Amino acid sequence: MNKEMSLLFRAIPLMMGAICLAYGLYIWNRGPTPDNVVSGHVVTFLTAICIALFSTAATIIRQLTDTYGPGYRAALPVLGYAAGIIAVICGLTFVARIPHADGFVAGHVVFGIGLITCCVATVAASSTKFVLIPRNSKAAPDAKPDNAFNEGTATILLAVPIICTVVGLAWGFALLTKQHSGSEYMVAGHVLVGLSLVCGSLIALVASVLRQIQNTYGDREHRSWPLLVAVLGGINILWGLTVLVSGDDPARLAPGWVLIGLGIVCWSILSKVLLLALVWRRSFPLADRIPLIPVMTALSCLFIAGFLFEAGLDEPAYYVPARIMVGLGAVCFTLFSIVSILESGTSGGD
Q: For residue 247, what pLDDT is reported?
C-alpha cells in the first residue's frame, strides 16, 4: 500500500466522524424539541464508531507500511475502547438525568452505540497481529504461527463482542416487555435489540480475524461466519419492516426505519467477513470488487434518508429516522475504508 492510499484510508473514518459530530451537534442545538434531542444525540455519538474504525484502519495500515511501533500497538485500541466507554457512560447518564421520554430513548440508543464501538475497538485489538493472516494463508493448515495470541488473550478478545451482544439483547428485550408503559419503551427496546445484532455481526468479524491469526480457521468457517452476518442483517431488516406495518401509531416509524438501517450496516460488515473467508488459502479474482459492498450500503442509507426527508414534510415522525439514516450512511462509508485495507493486506496488493 502506497503512502497516499494509506493516508486516504485513514482519513475517511476521521472525515465521516467529523460529519457525524458536526451534523449531530447542529441538530442537537436547533432547539430542545424531543426530535432534536433524540436525533442530535444519536448522530453525534455515531462519531464514536467512526473513531473506533479509525483505530482499526490505522492498526492494519501501519503494519502494512512497516510503521507500527509498540506505542501504536497500545494507543490505537485504547482510543477505540475509550470512545466506546464514553458513549456507554453518556448513554446511561442520559437515561438517568434527562427526565423525559426523549432522553430515555436517546440514552438507550447511545448506550447501544457504545456497545458497538467497544466491539469495533476489539476488531482493532485483534488486528494488532494482522500481518500473520497473509502468512498463515500460505502456510500449512497445522502450522503454529510464531507471535500469535495466546489462548487466554484470544478468548478474552472474542468474549468482548459476545458480552456486548448478550447485554444489549437482554436489556432490549426487557424494555420491550414494558412497552405497554409507553411508546418510549417500544422505541428504545426495538432499536437496542437492532444495535445488539450489529454487535453480533462483529462477533463474526473478530472471530474470523482471531482464527486466521491463530491459523485455526476451518473450512466450515468459510460459510458459517458470513452466513451469520447475512442472517443477522436480514433479521434487522425484516424486523424493521414488521414494525413499520404493525399498526398506524407514528411512534413505530422511527424504530422501524432505524432497524432497516442497522440491517444495512450489518451487510456492510458482511463485506469484511466475506473477504476474509474468500481469500483464505484460495484465490478469488473478484476480491477487489468486495469494497463496493459498503459503498452500495452507504448509498442505500442516503437514498432512504432522502425519501424520509420528503416524507417528513407530511409526517413529523419521519424527522428522527431521516437524520439517523444519514449518520448510518456515514458509518457504512467508513467501513469501505476498512474492507479496502483488508483487501490490500490479504491480497498482498500495493
A: 83
